[in-house]
Amino acid sequence: MTDFVQLVILGLLAGGVYVAVGVGFGLVWGVLNIVNLAHGALVIIGGYLTWLLFTTFHLDPFLTLPLDAVALFLLGYALQRGVINRVIRAPLLFTFLLTFGLTLVIVNVLLLVFGSDFRSVTPSYAGASLEFGRVVVPYVRLASLVVAIGLAAGLAFMLNRTRTGLAIQAIAADREAAQLVGIDLRHAYAVTYGLGAACAGVAGGLIAMIQAITPTAGQPYTLQAFVVVILGGLGRVSATVVGGLVFGLVEVFGQSIPGSGSVFTNAIAFGLMVIVLVTRPQGLMGRLH
Amino acid sequence: MPVRKLALLVVSVFAAFACGGSTGPATGETIIFGAPLGLTGSLAKESELTKQGYDLWSDWINARGGIVVGGVRHPVQIKYYDDTSDPNQSAVLTQKLITTDKANFLLGPYGSTATNTDAAIAEQNQIPMVEANGAAEAIFNRGYKYTFGVLSPAGKYLQGVLDMAATLTPKPTTIFMLSADDAFSLEVAKGVETYAPTKGMTVFPTKKYKNGTTQLSAEVAAARAANPDIVLNSGHFLEAVAINKAAKEQKLNAKIFAYSVGPSTPDFINSLGKDADYVYGGSQWTPQVKYTPAFYLTVPQYVAAYKTKFPSFGDPDYHVAMSTMACLALQKAIENANSLDQKKVRDALAVLDVTTFAGQIKFDSRGLNIYKPMVVEQIQSGAHHTVFPLDVADAKPKYPTPPWDQR
Question: What's the complex ipTM?
Answer without folding.
Answer: 0.84
